[in-house]
Amino acid sequence: MRSKLQKLQVIAQMPDPPLLRLESESYQAYLTFLQHLCSDKPDLVADTQVERRLVELFQEVLGLYLETATAISESTNQNIEHEVSWVIPLGSSKRRELAARSPLVVATLQALSCHREPSFEKYLRQFFPLLVSLISCEHGSGEVQVALSDMFSSWIGPALLRPVC
After folding, report:
1. Residue 147: how many CB atoms within 10 A of its CB?
2. How far from the centroid of its chain's Cα atoms is residue 6's Cα?
3. Which residues fall within 8 angstroms of residue 133, CB to CB, at 6 or more apart?
4. Distant-in-sequence, close-in-space partners of 46: CB < 8 Å, separation ≥ 6
5. pLDDT tens-digit profile of 16-69?
């Protein structure tokens, strides 16, 4: 009986699984898979709506990061009307989560920058608010800001300044 209790105690003391790391790795694998499909099998891309899935993945990853980086919840913002609100710094657990999500966000921004085809420019309207929100949020690392800056200077800026025929 004592040995069973000791085994149960050891099992009860097992650490939680690294869910955030596993989530990031699964998103990264899915992103890589979709990118390889786009580059290696262009004829398959049109048939299976890979482009649409890639856009949805970009939006989901950026949305998760922004959700984590938001210091004041929407409900708090709705309760405060015309008052000056102070930006509350993120806690250490949120900073760690942002730092853990940063490599995936950087990979997502770099992947998005690589798709400069006119077919992807039609999605710019959906991405632009997310990208602007990324500029103004608090980051876990400077890598996201660098990737965002590169994206704006190499793809978004020229796309916005291009004359429409």
Report:
1. 20
2. 43
3. 66
4. none
5. 668 888 999 999 999 999 888 888 887 776 667 888 888 899 999 999 999 888
- For residue 74, pLDDT over 70 is answered with no
- Side-chain-side CA neighbours of 38 within 13 Å: the count stands at 21
| Number of Cα atoms under 13 Å in the Cβ half of residue 1 | 0
Counted residue by residue, the chain has a size of 165
3-state percent breakdown (helix, strand, coil) of the chain, nearest 5: 75, 0, 25
Q: Which two tokens stand for residue 7?
A: 């085994």
| C-beta atoms surrounding 29 within 10 Å | 10
Task: For residue 110, count CB atoms less than 10 angstroms from its CB and return exposed for 0-12, middle for 13-18, buried for 19 or more.
Answer: middle
Reference 148, options 67, 37, 65; nearest CA is: 65
**Residue 80 pLDDT level (bands cut at 50, 70, 90):** very low
* Residue 36 CA: distances (Å) to CA of 12, 33, 40, 45, 115: 42, 5, 6, 10, 12
